[in-house]
Design a protein that fits this description.
Length: 503
């Protein structure tokens, strides 16, 4: 397994296979015996952790939540004591075996967050969990630890939802570096000031614990050239793939976590990504007036990697494009592939996704999904080779087979209400306002509209049920008379408004 200090920020392998398998799958008697050893308070915490690992490996998924709910206090005690012990050891030595041990301890932490959302919602161990997550989110950590901290923090925030404090909302708003400081009740703040707030030594008598990095940056560690775009992609990725990972007793809460996080994203990040974003876009009451002419972007010639490139110098352009492509990805047709083993290095190759649009198959390997690119992608950055731009059919990202259901769930959420539908179409309108250097992003949006109009209509474009329509009047009769080939005249209005907005 990769060590925590390794370059890149790939999602760590948190499967049970990484744990030392002291026991194989056993019968009920052996499971009960391991449970007794794991919960025996007379044993040291490290021994109890080893038996708890083996127990979790032997238990079925349906047995895990009842076991955690029945023994939540002891399980958290085992996790916390081992975490604190390992934290001290990491600061003194920090060898490879201890870093791998941290991975397995964080897996237990993840299971606690996933299996006990009802308790976390009522702020169970609120300050303890918050302190641990701050240590993982510390900007002095290596990238792998920071990304793991983001992933676990989003799980915690999904469970807390409306019961979180202002501090958790501000931390979420500061997860992606490079954006302006967020205003709070105490003034502007950043992730560093939230994790380690300045102390007022003139009044304090009891000082809070100092938050320090768990694993500082390693010598020679690769750093993303555009950290804003890089961490934005990480945030968006984990918001989706963990959208349904909390095991609520009430299954109706399954999609509430994503809705909550996405609402926060729209509140804190959207104004910076799209300064001209408007809430007036309404497919149900479209404004068909011709928009005013927009000023042309000023391109500046510069040299990047010994090549002449052009840049628009528009703030957050790479992050804006990344968000548009992330959203578009939910609406293009997908074909999923299972993972295959790489025999050369024994590692696991991520599954691929092939997107098919209009009968054309596009294929792309997820080479950079979990690694830091040495050069910024031309199609995703603010630097572009204008003469060499091509209409690319490649997919934006790769999706693992195990995440198929959650991507379908998020797609359903994005098309579930008029508010979401208008939001999606406004983001697509913003794609048409991108400079010509980002034509590939605009083309992807055109593919979505082409799919909706010619191939598979989403719910909001379907004909209304005649049984639910109001009694016909003159206006309805005039409208129905304008139907041709099964396509309603309102579709023409939609397309006309799109073309007008492109101007």
């Amino acid at each position: 397994p990769q060590s925590w200090s390794g370059a890149g920020c790939g999602e760590p392998e948190r499967c049970r296979a990484r744990w030392p398998k002291m026991f194989s799958r056993r019968g009920h008697a052996d499971v009960k015996k391991s449970a007794q050893k794991a919960l025996d308070p007379r044993r040291d915490v490290l021994t109890r952790l080893k038996h708890l690992r083996a127990l979790m490996d032997a238990m079925d998924g349906s047995e895990m939540k009842p076991f955690f709910e029945a023994n939540y206090s002891q399980i958290y005690f085992i996790f916390y004591e081992n975490f604190v012990t390992l934290e001290t050891s990491l600061k003194q030595k920090g060898n490879k075996s201890q870093r791998e041990e941290l991975d397995s301890i964080l897996f237990l932490f993840e299971r606690i967050l996933q299996l006990l959302p009802e308790r976390i919602f009522f702020r169970w161990h609120f300050h303890s969990i918050g302190s641990i997550l701050k240590k993982l989110l510390h900007t002095g950590n290596c990238l792998k630890i920071r990304c793991e901290g983001i992933r676990l923090f989003l799980l915690w925030l999904q469970a807390l939802q409306t019961n979180c404090a202002e501090e958790q909302l501000l931390i979420f708003a500061c997860l992606v570096p490079g954006f302006p400081a967020v205003m709070s009740s105490n003034g502007p703040c950043t992730l560093d000031t939230l994790i380690s707030p300045p102390l007022n030594l003139s009044y304090a008598k009891v000082y809070p614990e100092e938050i320090t990095p768990l694993l500082p940056h390693a010598t020679g560690e690769k750093i993303a050239e555009d950290s804003t775009c890089y961490f934005l992609k990480i945030l968006l990725k984990y918001m989706v793939i963990q959208a349904a990972s909390l095991e609520w007793k009430n299954k109706e809460n399954r999609d509430t976590g994503f809705k909550f996080l996405f609402a926060l994203f729209r509140q804190y990040y959207l104004p910076h990504l799209f300064p001209s974003f408007t809430k007036l876009t309404n497919l149900y009451k479209p404004v068909l007036d011709i928009p005013g002419l927009r000023p042309k972007p000023a391109y500046i010639s510069t040299v990047c990697n010994n090549e002449n490139v052009y840049t628009t110098k528009i703030p957050y352009m790479a992050a804006r494009v990344a968000f548009i492509k992330w959203l578009v990805n939910f609406f293009l047709e997908k074909k999923y592939f299972t993972a295959t083993q790489n025999t050369k290095n024994g590692g696991e190759v991520l599954p691929r996704i092939i997107q098919t649009v209009g009968g054309t198959v596009q294929d792309k390997n997820p080479e950079t999904q979990n690694s830091i690119p040495s050069d910024p992608e031309k199609g995703h950055s603010n630097h572009s080779l204008l003469p060499e731009r091509r209409l690319s059919d490649s997919s934006f990202c790769s999706i693992e087979e195990q995440h198929r259901a959650v991507y379908e769930m998020v797609q359903q959420v994005l098309l579930s209400t008029r508010g979401y539908i208008n939001f999606v179409n406004e983001v697509f309108r913003q794609a048409f306002l991108l400079p010509s250097s980002e034509i590939s992003s605009t083309e992807k949006v055109v593919k979505v509209y082409r799919k909706w109009i010619l191939q598979e209509k989403p719910v909001f474009m379907e004909e209304p049920d005649t049984k639910e329509t109001v009694p016909e009047d003159d206006s309805i009769l005039d409208c129905s008379a304008a139907e041709t080939d099964g396509k309603h005249v309102c579709y023409c209005s939609l397309i006309n408004s799109i073309h007008l907005d492109i101007r």
